Amino acid sequence: MSLLQAKSYIEASRSLLTLSLLVITTQRRFRITYKTDPPSDNSIRLWLTQFQETGIVLHRKGAGRPSTSQENVDRIQETFTRSPRKSTRQSSCAVTYAAYDDMERSP
């Protein structure tokens, strides 16, 4: 093992030791503060990596429920206005077919 390899091995070992101590310290402080089981080692390491890369540890907001355009709302209201006794299933099919027809007609 060359001197350069030895130095890099020692540096890598030192950073692993530092990371391990950081994880243990974090777990201890969490347990004392919140009086419950701390997050796992992997979770803490993941949060640390995420914080170093992005500057935040919050989860990205999910896509959530898709928004409904006013055009679709108007189309559905029109369907129920024309035939209020039609079942929801039949109305849904009619609106869906109309939407596909509109997509096929538009260039």
What does this 3D model show about the protein?
The protein has 107 residues and is an all-alpha fold. It has two domains: 3-54; 70-104, no CATH class. Helices cover 72% and strands 0% of the residues. It is built from four helices and no strands. The model has no long low-confidence stretch (mean pLDDT 78).
User: Mean of residue pLDDT?
Assistant: 78
Structural class: mainly alpha
Through-space gap between termini: 68 Å
Runs in which pLDDT lies below 50 for 5 or more consecutive residues are none
Whole-number tally of structural domains: 2
What brief labels describe this structure?
107 residues, mainly alpha, 2 domains, 72% helix, elongated, DUF4817 domain-containing protein
